[in-house]
């Protein structure tokens, strides 16, 4: 299998961590979707990463779909409950974490792709407001629990860890670690795992 992605995408990092935790080998093929010579459109018409190319040539895209598929490939480290309310809880955590990344990326693109005179501060403030609201919700839901859901690491924790790592990478001025020490405690625990260490994005 080939995973098309970049080293800085938090969505790519999420699925790389899932594959690592599942002990499933996948070849990472780097592609910059913003470059003129990007090849991503040949496999994903949406022009987004990550994109997983299976051995038979079938293509799977969207990090949530890839992560869910990867969880079926090995009995090691079951990351998503099979059904019911527990499954919905883990997937909701993932949606919340992905929402932080979605909003952060929209704010960053506004600030980096548009010339200053065309940038909308209202738009950027709106996106960063979503980030803060999601962080507040995460911290409240996590409380004093060791993991986001249940008594072991799940996809919920991986998604949250990638969202928090993205904020440290692209928005280091956001003081979420001091504002939400329980989230920081979770993040530091995750950063002891080789899957997280090996997928740290390179310095910008």
Automatic annotation (TrEMBL):
Keywords: Transferase
Example of a GO MF term: maleylacetoacetate isomerase activity
Domain of life of the source: Bacteria
EC number: 2.5.1.18
All copies of domain GST N-terminal, residue ranges: 1-78
CDD domains: GST_C_6 (cd03205), GST_N_3 (cd03049)
Domain GST C-terminal: residue ranges: 83-204
SUPFAM superfamilies (alphabetical): GST C-terminal domain-like, Thioredoxin-like
Xref: Pfam families: GST_C_2, GST_N_2
Alphabetized InterPro entries for the sequence: Glutathione-S-Trfase_C-like (IPR010987), Glutathione-S-Trfase_C_sf (IPR036282), Glutathione_S-Trfase (IPR040079), Glutathione_S-Trfase_N (IPR004045), Thioredoxin-like_sf (IPR036249)
One GO-annotated biological process of the protein: glutathione metabolic process
Protein's UniProt name: Glutathione S-transferase
Organism for this UniProt entry: Polynucleobacter sphagniphilus
Lineage: Bacteria, Pseudomonadati, Pseudomonadota, Betaproteobacteria, Burkholderiales
């Amino acid at each position: 299998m080939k995973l098309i992605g970049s080293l800085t995408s938090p969505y790519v990092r999420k699925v790389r961590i899932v594959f690592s935790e599942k002990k499933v080998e996948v070849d990472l093929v780097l592609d910059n979707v913003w470059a003129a010579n990007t090849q991503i459109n040949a496999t994903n018409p949406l022009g987004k990463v990550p994109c997983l190319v299976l051995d038979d040539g079938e293509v799977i895209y969207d990090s949530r779909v890839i992560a869910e598929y990867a969880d079926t490939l090995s009995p090691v480290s079951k990351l998503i409950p099979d059904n019911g309310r527990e499954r919905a809880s883990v997937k909701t955590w993932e949606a919340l974490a992905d929402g932080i990344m979605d909003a952060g990326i929209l704010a960053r693109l506004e600030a980096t792709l548009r010339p200053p005179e065309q940038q909308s501060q209202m738009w950027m403030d709106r996106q960063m407001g979503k980030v803060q609201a999601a962080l507040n919700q995460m911290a409240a839901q996590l409380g004093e629990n060791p993991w986001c859901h249940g008594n072991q690491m799940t996809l919920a924790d991986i998604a949250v860890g990638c969202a928090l790592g993205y904020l440290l990478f692209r928005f280091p001025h956001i003081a979420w670690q001091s504002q939400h020490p329980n989230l920081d405690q979770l993040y530091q625990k995750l950063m002891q795992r080789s899957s997280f260490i090996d997928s740290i994005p390179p310095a910008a």
